[in-house]
Amino acid sequence: MTLRLDGKVAVITGGSSGIGEATAQMFVEQGAQVILGDIQEDLGESVAERLGEGATFALCDVTQEDQVAELIGEAIAINGRLDVMMNNAGIVGARGPIDEIELDQFQKTFDVLVSGTFLGIKHAAKKMKQQEGGSIINLASTAGVNGGFGPHAYAAAKHAIVGLTKNSAAELCRYGVRVNCIAPSGVVTPLAAQAHLGDFQALDKIRDTLAQNSPLKGRAGTAEDVANAALFLASDESGYTNGHCLTVDAGFTTGSKATEPAHTTSVPFMREAGKTGLTDT
Questions:
Q1: 158 an active-site residue?
Q2: Closest to 255 measured CA to CA, from 149, 130, 119, 111
Q3: Mean pLDDT of the chain
């Protein structure tokens, strides 16, 4: 059986835990050589060791351009190519009422989420343009698609990532480079557990919480769900998909809810001025 990423080289930032870790595992299982970039050094080293020869860890702060460039350089050194760049590193960042958020916290949120994504695209594009091919995958969020799904700075940053994805896709397509993003809702990760429960280790509890609120009854979103979306965008199966924001959210952004919507009950056809039925007769 042919593996879906056989022989491809991929970089994943924020690869030490959560969505990044799940994606790295899936990519390795599908034949890719994966470079994990993260600031969580001990955790990253242990993940790479667990994944075996298909994975390598490199310390990388995505807000530092030299470190992002070096991370991508390490991937290219493997076999002279970079096939997949997944800009996944992220934080929740500044939280609170709009009139109370400190500017430095707002800016730091953008440094990690937006500037980190920009740098990943920038340095991946340099190589992918030369080789005339590649897939860049950015991590957005449902908070970057609709309002009211996240803190102000986070939502603004994720909207920026969606816009940057589309603009980059429009430029790089002529070189055979595809740029897409994934917009998950809350999924079972240490980051979600910390954000919602104040305990990054409370994975069982956050799973129950997300399952209770899910439009798909009893079904919480998982890091593996997002990894599956990333696998599609990384593989040749998505070879004609470009500039797309793929939601992985059980339908939250469509207005889907766990409760039954009011319009599912049969009622008479409604017309003007309180009239019902198709005709006056």
A1: yes
A2: 149
A3: 93
CA–CA separation, 225 and 240 (whole Å): 21
Whether 266 is catalytic is: no
Sign of CA dihedral 8, 33, 234, 136: negative
In degrees rounded to 5, what are phi and psi of residue 233? -70, -25
User: Do residues 188 and 211 touch, judged by C-beta distance below 8 A?
Assistant: no
The Cα 35–Cα 44 span in angstroms is 10
Quote the pLDDT of residue 7: 95
- For 158-204, write each residue's pLDDT tens digit: 999 999 999 999 999 999 999 999 999 988 788 888 877 787 778 78
Task: Look up 141 and say whether it is catalytic.
Answer: yes
Please say whether the beta carbons of 88 and 52 come within 8 A: no
Which pLDDT does position 190 carry in this prediction? Answer: 80
Low-confidence stretches of the chain (pLDDT < 50) are none
3-state secondary structure 78-111: HHCCCCEEEECCCCCCCCCCCCCCCHHHHHHHHH
Q: Where are the domains of the chain?
A: 9-274
Pick the catalytic residue: 115, 127, 158, 185?
A: 158
Annotated catalytic residue, options 17, 154, 168, 185:
154
Cα-flanking dihedrals φ and ψ of residue 37, to 5°?
-110, 130
Quick one: fold of 9-274?
A: Rossmann fold (3.40.50)
Helix (H) or strand (E) holding 13: strand 9-13
Q: Distance (Å, rounded) from C-alpha 67 to C-alpha 220?
A: 35
How far is residue 150's CA from residue 92's CA, in Å, rounded to a whole number?
9
The alpha helices in the chain, defined as continuous H runs, are: 18-29, 41-51, 65-79, 103-110, 116-131, 152-172, 190-197, 203-213, 223-234
Catalytic residue among 16, 135, 141, 214: 141
